[in-house]
Amino acid sequence: MRINKEMRLVFMLNFSFSTKNSNFVEKFERMDISVVVPLYNEAKSLPELYQWINRVMIENHYTYEVLFVNDGSTDNSWEVIEQLANESPAVKGIRFRRNYGKSPALHCGFQRAQGDVVITMDADMQDSPDEIPELYRMITEEGYDMVSGWKKKRYDPLSKTIPTKLFNATARKFSGVKLHDFNCGLKSYRNEVVKSIEIYNDMHRHIPYMVKIAGFNKIGEKVVQHQARKYGSSKFGMNRFVNGYLDLITLWFTAKFGKKPMHFFGLWGSLMFFVGFVAFVYVLVLKLISIYAGDLRPLVTNSPFFYISLTAMILGTQLFLTGFLGELISRNSPGRNRYRIEKEI
Asked: Nearest CA to 9 among 17, 342, 91, 225?
C-alpha cells in the first residue's frame, strides 16, 4: 500500500514537471509577429527593409519572423534573401518559379505564417515598419480581427491616386466595409483570419471584403505614413484598375449567390420569361382582334412585340436553366456544408 502511494506521488510529480515544462516550451516557442513581404525585382531595397524591421522588433522585444515571397523576380532578389537568411534565423523565403502575382504570394505567405499577428507590407519601402507596434497593439489589445493602413497623404502620381480614390469609393459601396484605402499593402491580422481566407487571382485588393465574408467583422483602420519610392519603379498599370472592378463584382456575386445560384438566375429568368409571355399575349390578342374584324392582313411577324416576346422567353429559359445547373454544381461541391465555427461548448 505504501509502495503504491509512493509510486503515485512520483507519477504526480513527474506529470506536474512535464506539464510545466511543456507550458514553458510552448511559451518559449510562441511567436508574436509574422511579417509577410511579397516582392518582385526589389533586390536593392531588401537589406535596408530587413534592417529596419529588425530594429523595430528588437526595440519592442517581439519574437518574429520575416517571410519574403519572391514572385519570380528576374533580378538577384533571391540571392539577397538567401544572404539575409544566412545572417538571421528570423528570415525565411519562398521562391516562385515564375511571376504569379501578389495574391498567390500573399496566399503562400499566409499559409506559412506562425505569428499570433500577421503583418503584410510591400518591399518597395513605401510602407514604414515603424507602424508595426501600433498595428500589433490594435490587434492584441483592442481586439480587432484586421487593421488596414490608410495612406492619407500619398506620394504617388495623379495617374495612380485618382483611379485609387474611385476604386475605394466603389469598394466601400459594394462591400459595406468602411475603409478609405482597401489596397494599402500595410495591414495586420489575427493569425486565425489569414488561415480562414483564400486569396487568388488578383483578390488581394479586396482582402477586407474577404475577411468580412469569412465572418470577421471587427475591421479597423489606421492612418499610416506613406513614403516616396526609394528604389526601382512602380508596377502599377491601368489594367489593374479595370481588373479590380471585375474582381469586386465577382467577389460580391459569389459571396451573395455562390451557394444559391437559383436565387439570382431563377429570379431574373422567371421575370424575363414573364415579360416575354406578356408580350406574346399582347401580339396574340391584336391578331385575334384583327381576325374578328375580318382583316387578315396584319402578320404576327410584322409586330416588334413578337420578336421581343420570342427573345425574352428564350433568354428567360436560358437563365432559369443556368440557375438550375448552378444548383446542381453547388449541391455536389465538397464545400457545400463547410462552415466556420467560432466557438463550441
From this structure: 17
